[in-house]
């Protein structure tokens, strides 16, 4: 049984919860766009302000934000990812000016209008779009990034913003560069956690037997499938050499026996991944350090930690327990024989 990693509690402080009083829209056509919702604390570095809010309270926080409203906030953990997504938009518009299939970035904020001016000014300072406050009736959000674990847990529990991910700050940030590089884990991220479950119940031998028996059957959808499919659709607008997007699968499955079904599933979905790495249980950190992705998604906290240690911005994708209520860490095949 996996211990729940998120306590049942309200988001604190409300300032940063994903139940925003407003959000900023940088692009507009949610029916066509690839919608990413990101909290202010994930996109901007608000650590000092967050501390001030916790220690001195809301009024002092508002006073500080008003006094500094023309001073752009420093970039946060998700900043390079969002910037690379905007670069992809530019490249798409260069080749097809009328294209509506673009990244649509929603910046979620619980700031009041008095304290929110600095956020809006910062978004304007860095952004190419013209951010305007709107009200959240959103849907079609394919990725939600928050720097607050409780936010993510609450969003998961309420079924909002599927899939929510907790973005983790690495020890050092790689310099931002293009193209946009996104790394996905396999089991319980792109794919469902069905094989993880078999492993938990029956061990590695059981999981391998299951995979052999199911070889011809594609795996179920994982929480990041919809996002990855949309990214793949954007990716197809370009030739391999000119693509502003590169996608990677870095899975702890082995390439031999456990890799076949992963490859077949991607083929069945029509999801072209630029490079796939089958780590056979080896740590993911070294390969991530080479790829230098703008973001890495994994359900295993040991992999997230490994990514953070080599300076890779990473997003933890929690999964639900059997009851579907408690977000838990994916407990993939740890240690020897780990496949997920
Ligand atoms: Mg996994």
From TrEMBL:
It comes from the Eukaryota. Coiled coil: none annotated. Residues 321-340 are annotated as: Disordered. Pfam families: 5-nucleotidase. GO terms for biological process: adenosine metabolic process; nucleotide metabolic process. GO terms for cellular component: cytosol. GO terms for molecular function: 5'-nucleotidase activity; magnesium ion binding; nucleotide binding. InterPro entries: 5-nucleotidase, HAD-like_sf. This is 5NT1A nucleotidase. It comes from Buteo japonicus.
